[in-house]
Amino acid sequence: CVGCVWLCWVCLGLGGKVPTMMTLFSPFMIASQLDRDIISHSKEEPVFIGEQIKMITSVMTEFIKGTIDAGVDGIFLATQHLNQKLENNIRIKLEFDQLKSLIDNGLKENTFLIMHLHGMEPDFDLAMKLPRISGINWHDQKTRPNMSEARKIFPGALLGGLNSESWKNTPDMVAEKKKIVSSVKSVNAKGLIPTPHQTHPT
Fold first, then answer.
1. What is the spatial order of strands in the sheet that 74-79 belongs to?
2. C-beta of residue 143 within 8 angstroms of C-beta of residue 121
3. Would you say 151 and 186 are in contact if contact means Cβ atoms under 8 Å apart?
4. What's the mean pLDDT when you consider all of the chain?
5. pLDDT 10s digits, 158-170
6. Three-state DSSP class for residue 20
7. 117 SS3 class
8. pLDDT tens digit string along 38-54?
9. Average pLDDT of 96-103?
10. What is the largest CA-CA distance in the chain?
11. What percent of the chain has pLDDT over 70?
12. Kind and range of the H or E element at 135?
């Protein structure tokens, strides 16, 4: 695809000096942007909606393969539906199963994978059942688990410690430094990458 060709040129231009990651969204999240009433529609026509999401998963799988072949160092995979708000059967069938398929069939064994759980009440336990996750990012400043709780659940890299809202205006750097120090202490200085919990506002 054109995007993968462009990405290939970017990676070649950087010459491996700067790590590159491609941001992608879960198939169910993409489907929910195409159909704002997808939850109710999935209950009314489960077979049809399931087939459509599988088709999106198939396309996304090929796109991930293309980005990796183009030279990216990792994937930032985001979802806003792997949380306690969804009924368990929908969360597993339409979100978890498709994410697992995407990872199993699209990523290589050594692909660096960051999983972003967007929103409140993330289903951390279910997310931990996904394969090959190198690191995880969530709204740790707003919802559970906190950093120390997450460290007990997940042995990989934890990305967080900063509240993106506090950066909308000129941040109080002293306060932000305290947040980072607190986060580092909460995980015993192991495996923390200080980041906001979502896109940095501009």
1. 21-25, 74-79, 112-117, 135-138, 157-162, 192-196
2. yes
3. yes
4. 85
5. 998 777 665 556 5
6. coil
7. strand
8. 999 999 999 999 999 99
9. 97
10. 54
11. 81
12. strand 135-138
- Local structure of residue 166 (DSSP, 8 states): G
- pLDDT of 165 reads 63
Beta-carbon contacts of 48 under 8 Å, excluding residues fewer than 6 positions away, are none
Amino acid at 165: E
Q: Find where tokens 């559970």 sit.
A: 144
Q: H helices then E strands: how many in the chain?
A: 9, 6
pLDDT score of 200 more than 90: no
Q: Residue 149 pLDDT more than 80?
A: yes
Given its phi and psi angles, is residue 16 left (phi above 0), alpha (psi -120 to 50 degrees) or beta?
Answer: left
- pLDDT of residue 70 exceeding 80, the answer is yes
Spatial separation of the C-alpha atoms in residues 197 and 29, rounded to whole Å:
18
DSSP H stretches of helix in 15-107: 27-34, 38-44, 46-70, 88-90, 97-106
Average pLDDT over residues 53-61: 97
- Amino acid letter for position 98: Q
**Which residue is listed with tokens 């688990």?**
145
Tokens encoding 57: 């998963």
H or E segment to which residue 159 belongs: strand 157-162
- Residues 54, 91: Cα–Cα separation, whole Å: 15
Dist CA 61 CA 44 (whole Å): 27
Tell me the CA distances in angstroms from 196 to 122, 139, 162, 166, 185, one per residue in order: 16, 8, 4, 10, 17
- Cα-Cα-Cα-Cα dihedral sign, residues 64, 65, 70, 74: positive
